[in-house]
Amino acid sequence: MMRIGIFGGTFDPPHIAHLVLAAEACDQLKLDRLLWVLTPDPPHKVGWEITPLPARIEMLRAAIADNPLFELSRVDIDRPAPHYAVDTVSLLREQYPGAGLVYLVGGDSFHDLPQWYRPDALVASVDGIGVMRRPGDRVDLAAISARIPGIEARVQFVDAPLLEISGRMIRQRARQGLHYRYFLPPAVYAQIEALGLYQPEIESKG
């Protein structure tokens, strides 16, 4: 059975930590393919300022172009909002019949999983949940299992190196005129420069 990982996010921008986590997930969970599911309008980020979708698509394509295991999925791009994980998985089931689907989440997101939209249905619809833990991260699996019965049987932990990099941090550094290029794959940095994204804020005078 082909094992396919599902890695969702806004990827604004896609950075080195994303790629390291994705590679570790492929190795540790024995994935044959990793789908990068770019979410246009995340339900939990309503009202946030997010870079326009076409620019994020170009950045993500640049980030994953040189890895044959990585693939950009348009499953959320080509459908209207809201984009809930349980619906995304349902559509991917139709696209990849017979494949084993492993949904990837960060440790922080896993703690919040009981508050997601229809978490029980999401857990039932996947063959595994890959939880990407940072060093020292403690996950109270028993407490989460009490709220989502059956989740323990599907959880697989991915131990990843500690990389304190986030899209928000990169955007802030860029807007403050600080160096940020080395947090990114060179191809993504080139896209940001070409598209004129995350420009330094200009202080008003007077």
Tell me what you see in this structure.
By secondary structure, the chain is of the alpha/beta class. 36% of the residues lie in helices and 17% in strands. It has eight helices and six strands, in the order E-H-E-H-E-H-E-H-H-E-H-E-H-H. A six-stranded parallel beta sheet has the order 3-2-1-4-5-6, sandwiched between helices. Helix 2 packs antiparallel against helix 8. The longest helix has 13 residues. The protein is globular. The mean pLDDT is 91.
Category from helices, strands and their pairing: alpha/beta
Strand content: 15-25%
Mean pLDDT, as a whole number? 91
Note poorly predicted spans.
Answer: none
> Which geometry do the CA atoms define?
globular
Pattern of helices and strands: EHEHEHEHHEHEHH
